[in-house]
Amino acid sequence: MRGLLFRGVIVTLVIVACAIGSTAAFGLLVAADYFAFARILSPPFAALAAAGTAILFCAVAVLLGTLVLARTKTRVRRRMHTRIVGLLGEIFGKELLDATDRHPLGTLAAILVAGFALGFSPTLRNTFLRTFLRR
Q1: Residues 40, 86: one domain?
Q2: In which domain, by residue range, is 97 found?
Q3: Considering only CA atoms, which of 55, 59, 33 is closest in space to residue 46?
Q4: How far apart, in whole angstroms, are the C-alpha atoms of residue 31 and residue 37?
């Protein structure tokens, strides 16, 4: 327990240090931006241009963060759907296998009727196979 608490304190201190360092770096970036604009603009306009650049930078960072989070959510959903479908397929597969073992003649008859219907009707075959292959 003591080691876990110590690690938590260390991680918190590292995060705080990174936040302070990032804030200082961003402040120095804005200051450098101000001094670059001050060469070609008057000081009030240079300050406005530096502030505008900082706001633009923040807007781009928020936009990129939003896109990354949306992509991550999509991946998580896909993984979740894949797990659910795999689990359902496994459950239904076992049930179907048990039903097939219990009723072999009924299963054979159902397969023959389905094969005959799909082979005989081009409309049913095209509709069924297209919807099956789309999934």
Answers
A1: yes
A2: 2-102
A3: 33
A4: 10
